[in-house]
Amino acid sequence: MSKIEKTIARQQEKISEGQFYEAHQQLRVVASRYVKQENWAAAIDILYGGALALLKAGQGGSGGDLCLYMVDVFGKGEVGVEAESRGKLLALLRAFPPEEPTKKRFVDEMMAWSVKFGEYENGDPELHHVAGTLYAEGGMKATLRILLWLRRPESEPYEAERHLALGTKDSPEQLARVEYEWYTQDDSHTAAQYAARAVFPYLLTGNLRAANKALLIFNSRLTSSNKSLGVQEVSSTSSDMRVFPVLPLMNFLGLLLLAIQRGGADLYRQLAKHYAVHIKEVGIWDDALAQIGELYFGIKIPKQGNPLFDMMGSMLFGGGGASPKPSTPKAKPKKVEAPPPPVDLD
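Structure (tokenized):
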């Protein structure tokens, strides 16, 4: 057993005995000594092992503090986003107690680290996917609170949406599923409002494939669970679409995706005009649709704030009305050099 393993084992024993404060402080001291020597690997191992033990013991505050310290060490050591570093972060994230306030800060800081030292300019998709999925699972445990949470920034549904919008190829299915579950807590006529929460974020990040997948999954859940809707299947040689006689905005979303793929600015204007009364009733789609019109149809609009961009942009895109960019790879960071030989620190 190495010296680091012995140190972690001793602190784990203290944690099992309920000496949480003492273990937390000693782990921090030992890690700080390694940091001063620029022995990043040793510091990370100490912090990871200690944080995981504290989180599993239900000590979210002290465990979260070591998690944040570990991300800070990742930055100082210029650790890249690779399988090992990503694995440590995800293991810690999954170990957080559900209601621990430190979790959000940990997620935000690990995303900022992945932007700086990873391949993707909006953060690592796998980190986004897992974070979004965990937030979604937390949000789905609530029932009556969901409708209020969806209107409150930094709620678990809000966090789930903005992370899943930048996740992996599996994220649209997860986002559509949870949006449908949240929809079931609301009035039946609001289906399109929840479907749009799964579609618009992907359109606004230039991910048309994910937007189509999300709507397809939402529609499938909607039709299979509501046989009385009288849904009609319309097919042609080039496309298929479900038509909802009593849910006009669901039809609008489907036609919008078709227009993006095959239409032009005139078709988009006609579509928006035809459904204008229903869109006005929703009251919050105007800015998003204006941005979609500019992004996909070249219809210029004055630059302005966008609530749907803000939904995802406060952490990842710098806030305001700045247009988010797709998750395209960027140059990889340099590797961390091997640490110096360990010295006796305990």
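Residues 256 and 268 are 7 Å apart (CA to CA). The two ends are 15 Å apart (CA to CA).
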